[in-house]
Amino acid sequence: MKVQIEESWQQRLQDEFDKPYFEKLVAFVKSEYKKAHVLPPGHQIFHVFNACPFEKVKIVILGQDPYPNPGQYYGVCFSVPDGVAIPGSLANIFKEIHMDLGTPIPTSGNLDHWVAQGVFPMNSVLTVRAHETGSHRDKGWEIFTDAVIKKLSDERENLVFMLWGSYAKEKMSLIDTRKHLVLTTVHPSPRSAEYGFFGCKHFSKANAFLRSKGIQEINW
């Protein structure tokens, strides 16, 4: 199956695109777009892939579901477009960066400047019905995004994986911890951030690791 995605990802993921589960997933997603309000708009499903080629990835941040409110999600986990109110989890991420690095808290929740530097924030599920969190779980997206994590782990070195919350931590088994740094803590959600996300210092730890490997650090 031919999928419109950036060339370096196309080459590495074509085996996935050709598998029966992916054909079923595409059929499901297409039918959903026809009968329901689905997020993000179709051309943005692979936005983070298109904006961050395989060889450019430095840091992987894993999420679960896209934001379900129209206007919020455009294909980058945790990020929202300029001018859109900053969701609670992202506000807590910014708060932790401020405490960790002393940088000002941004007024925009758009994380494209992270992606341009090699931060790869990816949800496990890449589509959702509007206002129905989790509505596209267990349809095949998780198989695909697990393959993405495994591919990054196997074919790259010295990446930083940020696994926040119990769901993300389950992905640890896909990552070779001998050649990558894995940082884990609770989810930045307002329900859980105070139980370990605040004070985790993941952002300074990630930059210290990159520096130690001679890799340009991230301007968070």
Q: Can you give keywords for this protein?
A:
220 residues; alpha/beta; two-stranded antiparallel ribbon; 6 strands; 37% helix; Uracil-DNA_glycosylase-like_sf
Major sheet description: 4 strands, parallel
Look at the structure and give the CATH class: Alpha Beta
- Within the CATH hierarchy, at the fold level, what is the topology? Uracil-DNA Glycosylase, subunit E
Which strands sit side by side, in order, in the main sheet? 3-2-5-6
Average pLDDT number: 97
At the fourth level of CATH, the homologous superfamily is Uracil-DNA glycosylase-like domain
Number of strand segments: 6
Please state the overall shape, judged from the principal axes of the Cα atoms. Answer: globular
Fraction of residues in β-strands: 5-15%
Low-confidence stretches: none
Q: In angstroms, what separates the terminal alpha carbons?
A: 37 Å
Secondary structural class: alpha/beta
Number of helices: 8
Please give the share of residues in helix.
Answer: 25-40%
Number of domains: 1
Query: Using only CA atoms, what is the Rg?
Result: 17 Å
Q: Which architecture per CATH?
A: 3-Layer(aba) Sandwich
Order of helices and strands: HHEHEHHEEHEHEH
Describe the structure.
By secondary structure, the protein is of the alpha/beta class. 37% of the residues lie in helices and 11% in strands. Strand 5 (160-164), helix 7 (166-169) and strand 6 form a beta-alpha-beta unit. The chain has helices spanning 7-17, 20-35, 47-51, 88-101, 112-116, 141-155, 166-169, 202-212, and strands at residues 38-39, 59-63, 119-123, 128-129, 160-164, 181-185. The model has no long low-confidence stretch (mean pLDDT 97). The radius of gyration is 17 Å and the shape is globular. It has a single domain (5-211), classed as Uracil-DNA glycosylase-like domain (Uracil-DNA Glycosylase, subunit E, 3-Layer(aba) Sandwich). The chain is built from eight helices and six strands. It has a four-stranded parallel beta sheet. The chain starts with 6 loop residues before the first helix and ends in an 8-residue tail after the last helix. The active site is at residue 65. Belongs to the uracil-DNA glycosylase (UDG) superfamily. UNG family. Excises uracil residues from the DNA which can arise as a result of misincorporation of dUMP residues by DNA polymerase or due to deamination of cytosine.
